[in-house]
Write a structure and sequence with these properties.
The chain is mainly α. The chain is about 55% helix and about 0% strand. The radius of gyration is 20 Å and the shape is elongated. The chain binds zinc ion. The site of zinc ion has 7 residues, from α3.
């Protein structure tokens, strides 16, 4: 792989989200081809493309609640703290929560 994506340094969260996206596409492929759908079951080379499009369209709506909460956690537990201390935990910055969220 020699494109710009190969050079990205993803955070742990971004890697997790990308892996979840891939699993979602695989699940969508399997779901569209489920024999339980009978005569309306999808098949053929378009299935992975349709699955990717479906998951890509849905992902922002699925990710938004999680990312909004993580953003709030980052505001409560700033990595650099305030005067070297976490304003929420009171301990030295970065606190354990800030380190975990920034991973
Ligand atoms: Zn904290």
């Amino acid at each position: 792989m020699n494109d710009w994506r190969a050079q990205l340094q993803l955070t742990e969260l971004a890697r997790d989200l990308e892996e979840a996206h891939g699993r979602g596409v695989s699940a969508a492929c399997a779901g569209m081809q489920d024999p339980a759908f009978g005569s309306i079951r999808l098949s053929g080379t378009a299935v992975p493309i349709l699955a990717e499009a479906a998951v890509t369209s849905a992902s922002p709506f699925l990710r938004a609640p999680v990312l909004a909460r993580l953003s709030k956690v980052r505001l409560l537990h700033p990595f650099t703290g305030v005067d070297g201390r976490c304003p929420e935990c009171g301990g030295p910055a970065p606190c354990r929560t800030a380190r975990e969220v920034m991973a």
